[in-house]
Design brief:
8-stranded parallel sheet, 6-stranded parallel sheet
Length: 358
Amino acid sequence: MRLFILTSSKFAIPRPQLCQKVLDIIELGLSSAHIHFYIVGDHLPEPLVLLEQNNEAVTIIKEIAAEKLIKEVTNASIIHFGADLKGSDPFPHYFIPLTHPIFTRELSMINRWSLPKNFKNYVKKSIATYAINEWTTIFLKNKYKGYSTKIQEAYLPITRLPIYEWVALADAKNNLTEGANYFLAFQPLNGFVDMLKEFSIFKKWQQTNMALVFIFDNDKELMQAQTLLTGYKFKDSIFLKSMSDFESAWIAAAYTILFGTIHFDKTVLIEMAIEYNIPLVFNNAENQRSIMPDTWQQAGEQFSFEEKGGLSNHFKLYYKDEVYLQGRARMGKQWLTALYEEKKKAGLIKIPLAIKSS
């Protein structure tokens, strides 16, 4: 069988996350002698290039060439994360959602209408829509009740993350924070100023060069945050980035990662961070409490970011107490190991071993 895996998406998925799942799919499927993998895309990261170089069953192919090839074959299937391949309609399509358009803020009026419609059409068109964890499954089955039989939970763990030696991590910090250690925050714009205030208290306590890096959903939010940062006393310790520029090394080099808002689109990031032994902190304020399923509650520490002094105390705790920091990292690792074991024993669909050609 020829399995075409598309590496583009209409939806807001950071490329390192998408390409990581492509790598996971192929690593899990290399045990099958009946599958030849075609990675469709340009400018792919080094791990996928090396995967092709080391495996005869893997071919990297540009989209135009894939469109030509798909017309010449009879035994093909398509895996995608929200994309189309011209000429592939006669073949089975398998959709793997890594996000949903409603999680993306500041969409244009046209995209607010078109992207949810595209998403629903992908679910409708697919032979199966594979949710890669329980969190995604719950969301999709609630959102698309009419297509619940198409939505199936699948087993697709992270199999091999990029390995960063200390030199590479030092380079990542030099590029991101001018060499300073940092907390990494996925904080919405409406909570930005409050987190800055809490970070100020921490900086006054500790007199440290510790930095705080914010990652925003898009460039518009980033520019708004830059305006709000004007006049901030510890501005030199604040760094602003957009998810469109996201790099896996930012996760691996972080001191602690804070999630002010959380949906299933962050689950790959959560798993990546835990594999890199980075402790996680989640906001469990009232508007967030019902979003995270019970099975994910132990992925990291939870408290309300809206609680006065809560963030500043935790900045101090994670900065000063190395034993506490490592303990929280181990807690996440134990949780993820147990989760993978449980899912492995549950007899879930394994991507791509369950996929069949037409």
